[in-house]
Amino acid sequence: MIAYLKGKLAYIDPTYVIIDIQGIGYEVKISLTTFGKVKEEEQTYLHTYQHIKEDGHTLYGFKEPSEKKAFLELISINGVGPNTGLMILSSLSVEELEQAILQNDHATIQRVKGIGAKTAQRIVLELKDKIKKEGISTGDGSAPGFIQSSNKLKQEALQALITLGFTKAQAEKNILTVLKKSGPDVSLEALIKASLKSSS
């Protein structure tokens, strides 16, 4: 199995990329979340999953390990194939998906194209306990889970705000407020700036 690819970004589209590694182009399907993170890169590194069927091999790529983990959890569910898993992760951030599962929010999952009521219920039913058991708390009051896509971002912003004179509690509160409004794809600089404004 191909676990990751590191090479030149030869072509990029919102749904797939071609990575050139020593003259060989690997076509990799990606989510919109990953697209947003790699679109400005010349060299890229993607965590990959190789799906093998009789009629071909397909590579799926993810910028963050947590997104790949969420994808693998999704496709372990009966009725959720790789393309559906990718569609879910293109429609919902990994954190939004986790929150929907933990809160039994079937409606949010059903809003994803191609997801019916039964599939949404199955996703919640099969992943809720797994998220609770295997989750690692971020320590900032947010729900635990297999989703840690923005954990590093939060920690870096937290350190910056503490350095700027905030208490840890106030810094954490501001960061969470901003992330709820902006989503997990906000840049570190934008997160820090908005967190500074949040306290004024």
UniProtKB/TrEMBL annotation:
Q: What is known of its domains?
A: Has three domains with a flexible linker between the domains II and III and assumes an 'L' shape. Domain III is highly mobile and contacts RuvB.
InterPro entries (alphabetical): DNA_helicase_Holl-junc_RuvA_I, Hlx-hairpin-Hlx_DNA-bd_motif, NA-bd_OB-fold, RuvA, RuvA_2-like, RuvA_C, RuvA_C_sf
CDD domains recorded: UBA_RuvA_C (cd14332)
Q: Name one GO molecular function term.
A: hydrolase activity
Keyword Transcription on entry: no
The entry's family comment says:
Belongs to the RuvA family.
According to UniProt, the name of this protein is Holliday junction branch migration complex subunit RuvA
Major place of localization?
A: cytoplasm
Hydrolase in keyword set: yes
Where the record annotates domain Helix-hairpin-helix DNA-binding motif class, the positions are: 72-91, 107-126
Binding partners and assembly = Homotetramer. Forms an RuvA(8)-RuvB(12)-Holliday junction (HJ) complex. HJ DNA is sandwiched between 2 RuvA tetramers; dsDNA enters through RuvA and exits via RuvB. An RuvB hexamer assembles on each DNA strand where it exits the tetramer. Each RuvB hexamer is contacted by two RuvA subunits (via domain III) on 2 adjacent RuvB subunits; this complex drives branch migration. In the full resolvosome a probable DNA-RuvA(4)-RuvB(12)-RuvC(2) complex forms which resolves the HJ.
Q: What does this protein do?
A: The RuvA-RuvB-RuvC complex processes Holliday junction (HJ) DNA during genetic recombination and DNA repair, while the RuvA-RuvB complex plays an important role in the rescue of blocked DNA replication forks via replication fork reversal (RFR). RuvA specifically binds to HJ cruciform DNA, conferring on it an open structure. The RuvB hexamer acts as an ATP-dependent pump, pulling dsDNA into and through the RuvAB complex. HJ branch migration allows RuvC to scan DNA until it finds its consensus sequence, where it cleaves and resolves the cruciform DNA.
State which gene encodes it: ruvA
Where are the residues of the annotated region Domain III? 155-200
